[in-house]
UniProtKB/TrEMBL annotation:
<dbReference type="GO" id="GO:0004130">
    <property type="term" value="F:cytochrome-c peroxidase activity"/>
</dbReference>
<dbReference type="GO" id="GO:0046872">
    <property type="term" value="F:metal ion binding"/>
</dbReference>
<keyword id="KW-0479">Metal-binding</keyword>
<dbReference type="InterPro" id="IPR004852">
    <property type="entry name" value="Di-haem_cyt_c_peroxidsae"/>
</dbReference>
<keyword id="KW-0408">Iron</keyword>
<keyword id="KW-0574">Periplasm</keyword>
<keyword id="KW-0575">Peroxidase</keyword>
<dbReference type="GO" id="GO:0042597">
    <property type="term" value="C:periplasmic space"/>
</dbReference>
<dbReference type="InterPro" id="IPR026259">
    <property type="entry name" value="MauG/Cytc_peroxidase"/>
</dbReference>
<feature type="binding site" description="covalent">
    <location>
        <position position="87"/>
    </location>
    <ligand>
        <name>heme c 1</name>
    </ligand>
</feature>
<feature type="domain" description="Cytochrome c">
    <location>
        <begin position="226"/>
        <end position="387"/>
    </location>
</feature>
<dbReference type="GO" id="GO:0020037">
    <property type="term" value="F:heme binding"/>
</dbReference>
<dbReference type="InterPro" id="IPR009056">
    <property type="entry name" value="Cyt_c-like_dom"/>
</dbReference>
<feature type="binding site" description="axial binding residue">
    <location>
        <position position="245"/>
    </location>
    <ligand>
        <name>heme c 2</name>
    </ligand>
</feature>
<protein>
    <submittedName>
        <fullName>Di-heme cytochrome-c peroxidase</fullName>
    </submittedName>
</protein>
<feature type="binding site" description="covalent">
    <location>
        <position position="241"/>
    </location>
    <ligand>
        <name>heme c 2</name>
    </ligand>
</feature>
<keyword id="KW-0560">Oxidoreductase</keyword>
Length: 391
C-alpha cells in the first residue's frame, strides 16, 4: 500500500483508538496517517460478494434465474399474497414504513433491511440469527407473520410452476425431494444465487473519497478546501462513525448496543438470537450445508465461545448495518423508529437513548457528540452520497 508523503503530519501517528476516543484535538491535521489508511479501505468494494462454499449453487446462473422468479412469487406463501419482493423491492428499496405487512395483515417485528449487497454481510438479520444468506431465506418463508408457509406449500408450488428448472439444478424433482427441510434449504440456495447478483458497489461517495485521497498528496490546503473535508473529518473524529462503519462495506460486521429505543420481547437482540442459530439444523455446519467443516463452521464455534463470556457486549446488540445505499432503506434502525437521516444524526448527537429505554448496556463509544449544525449537515450530506445507481 502506498505510504502517505505528508511532511506536515507527525509520522508518529496516534493510534486509531486513541484518536477516536478524542485523544487528539481538532487542531491536529486531518487525515492522520492511520485515518488515511482507513479512508483507503472505504472505497474499494469488490463487484462480487465473497464466495460462499456452503451453497454449491451460489454462483450458478440457472439457480439465480429460478431464484429471481421465486423471490417474486406470492404463491410460495401460505396466504398466497406475500412474496419476498412484497417487503424487499428487487431494486433494493424497502417499505417506507417502520414495519412491513406479511400474511393476513400481520406486521413484522422489525424494519426490513435492503437485500442489495446483502451477501457482503457476515451475519444476517439485525440480531445475526442466520449465518448464511441461503438459510436466512427460510426464516421469512416459515414465519407466520411474514409468508406463513411450509415445505408442503413450497414443494407444491415448485411442482406446479418450476418442476423442470428445479430438476435441472438439483437432479431430482420437487416431489422426489421427500425431506421437506431439504426443499426449504434448496429454495434458500436459489434465493441466495439471485440475491448475490443484486449489488450496488459504487456511489458518488467513492469518487469523493478517491479525490480526497488524491488531494492529500497535493497539499493540506487542497485537503481542507475539498467539499468532502468536513463530512469525512466529522465521520472519523467527533462523530466516531468509523469505529463501527468502516471498511468497504462500511460495517465492521460486528454487533453493538448503541441504545436504540426498544421495549419489545426481542429487545435483547444478539444475546437471545445466537443459541438458536448455533443449534439450527440449517446453519453452516448443519446437514444442508455444502461445506460443513469449512471456515463458516469454525466461526460458529467462536461465537459459541463468545456467548459464554460476552453477555454484556451481546445483550441488546444489533449488527452494524452497511451505510451503502442508505437512501433506499429508511426509516432507520432495527425498529424503524428514526424516519430520516437527520433524525439518525440527532440520535447519535445525543448519545443514544437513556438507560431504561432499551435492554442491556450501551457501548462506551456512544456518548453525546455536541456536533455543530454545520457538522451535522456535512454528515447528512456524506450519508446521502453513499447511495449508488443500479449496476
Ligand atoms: C413481510 C415482510 C417480509 C417478507 C415477505 C420477507 N422479508 Fe426479508 N426481511 C424482513 C424483515 C422485517 C427483516 C429483518 C428481520 C430481522 O432482522 O429481525 C428481513 C430481513 C431480510 C434479510 C436480511 C438482510 C441482512 O442484511 O441481514 C434478507 C436477505 C431478506 N430479508 C430476504 C428475504 C427473502 C429472500 C424473502 C423471501 C423468502 C424475504 N426476505 C421475505 C421482511 C420481510
Ligand atoms: C459503536 C458502533 C457504532 C458507531 C460508533 C456508529 N454506528 Fe451507526 N449503527 C451501528 C449499529 C449497531 C446500528 C444498528 C443499531 C440498531 O438498529 O439497533 C447502526 C445504525 C446506523 C444507521 C441506520 C442504518 C439502517 O439501515 O437503518 C445509520 C444511518 C448509521 N448507523 C450511521 C452512523 C453515523 C453517521 C455514525 C457517526 C455519527 C454512526 N452510525 C456511529 C453502529 C455504530
Amino acid at each position: 500500500m502506498k505510504k502517505a508523503n505528508r511532511p506536515s503530519v507527525p509520522l508518529l501517528a496516534l493510534t486509531v483508538v486513541g484518536l477516536l476516543a478524542g485523544a487528539c484535538g481538532s487542531e491536529d491535521i486531518f487525515p492522520s496517517f492511520d485515518e488515511l489508511e482507513l479512508l483507503r479501505e472505504l472505497h474499494t468494494l469488490t463487484r462480487r460478494p465473497p464466495v460462499d462454499s456452503t451453497n454449491r449453487f451460489a454462483d450458478d446462473a440457472r439457480a439465480a434465474e429460478l431464484g429471481l422468479a421465486l423471490f417474486n412469487d406470492k404463491k410460495l406463501s401460505g396466504c398466497g399474497t406475500v412474496a419476498c419482493a412484497s417487503c424487499h423491492g428487487g431494486d433494493g428499496k424497502t417499505v417506507d414504513t417502520a414495519k412491513a405487512e406479511g400474511c393476513d395483515g400481520h406486521l413484522t417485528g422489525r424494519n426490513p433491511p435492503s437485500t442489495l449487497n446483502a451477501d457482503y454481510n457476515r451475519w444476517f438479520m439485525w440480531d445475526g440469527r442466520a449465518d448464511r444468506l441461503w438459510n436466512q431465506a427460510i426464516l421469512p418463508m416459515t414465519n407466520p407473520f411474514e409468508m406463513n408457509s411450509n415445505a408442503t406449500i413450497v414443494r407444491a408450488r415448485l411442482t406446479e410452476a418450476y418442476e423442470s428448472s428445479y430438476k435441472d439444478i438439483f437432479g431430482k424433482t420437487p416431489d422426489e425431494t421427500v425431506d421437506g427441510d431439504e426443499v426449504l434449504a434448496n429454495v434458500g440456495k436459489l434465493m441466495q444465487a439471485y440475491e448475490r447478483k443484486i449489488n450496488r458497489t459504487s456511489a458518488p461517495f467513492d469518487e469523493d473519497v478517491r479525490r480526497f485521497i488524491a488531494a492529500v498528496d497535493v497539499s493540506q490546503a487542497q485537503v481542507e478546501a475539498d467539499p468532502a473535508f468536513l463530512g469525512l473529518k466529522t465521520y472519523f473524529r467527533k462523530g466516531q462513525c468509523a469505529v463501527c462503519h468502516k471498511g468497504a462495506t462500511m460495517s465492521d460486521n460486528l454487533f453493538h448496543n448503541i441504545g436504540v429505543k426498544d421495549t419489545s420481547e426481542s429487545a435483547a437482540g444478539q444475546y437471545v438470537a445466537v443459541q438458536p442459530m448455533l443449534d439450527w439444523q440449517f446453519n453452516a455446519a448443519g446437514r444442508f450445508s455444502d461445506n460443513k467443516t469449512g471456515l463458516d463452521a469454525t466461526r460458529l464455534a467462536a461465537v459459541q465461545a463468545d456467548l459464554a463470556t460476552k453477555r454484556v457486549e451481546m445483550e441488546g446488540a444489533y449488527r452494524t448495518p452497511t451505510l451503502r445505499n442508505i437512501a433506499l432503506t429508511g426509516p432507520y434502525m432495527h425498529t424503524g423508529e428514526l424516519a430520516t437521516l437527520a433524525e439518525v444524526i440527532d440520535f447519535y448527537d445525543k448519545g443514544g437513548e437513556p438507560a431504561g429505554m432499551f435492554t442491556g448496556t450501551k457501548t462506551a463509544t456512544i456518548v453525546e457528540l455536541k456536533l455543530t449544525t454545520k457538522e451535522k449537515q456535512a454528515l447528512i450530506h456524506l450519508l446521502e452520497t453513499m447511495t449508488g445507481a443500479p449496476q
